[in-house]
Amino acid sequence: MKLIVGLGNPGKEYELTRHNCGFRVLDAFADMVDVDFSREDFKGVYAKFKLDDEEIILFKPMTFMNLSGNAVQEITHFFKIKTNDILVIYDDMAIKPGDIRLRINGSSGGQKGMQNIIDNLSTEEIKRIRVGIGEPKFGAIDFVLGKPSGDEKKLIDDAIERAALAIREYLIHDFQNAMSKYNGGGAS
Among 11, 31, 37, 107, which is 20 to 30 Å from 25 by CA? Predict the structure, then answer.
């Protein structure tokens, strides 16, 4: 069983914000595999489907970003999912808009939702896809909770689509393949 977690904040007012890239990637991937987030539990909403003989769970914590680890810990323990089978998708200010970065492990880089997951699961050995949103020109909180527009929006939308394709590559082949095919910017 694999768990794919998209990070964001619940509520209509946050839907298209930079901070909700993780939710948006999961929504794009859910559309690809024709599933919807019809189940509510573990402080979140989720969808389940099978690929070959493996169950896949797509999970969006509804705890707000900074407490994402509480929800991830609950669903992980309930379904007995190994850390090696978890993939987390989130926004990253250290990456320019339009780029995505796939990593097998590492620190949170200051992203509080990812840090909370690391703290709750007591490991940095968690696969992740980071969607670049770029550096703020003003306060970080206003920036991540703001909505991109113009060229920046197009770049982020393209990155979200590529991140969804990277999830598909990971599930069909493996994470190493997804890394070599989708790490960086531009169309692949």
Answer: 107
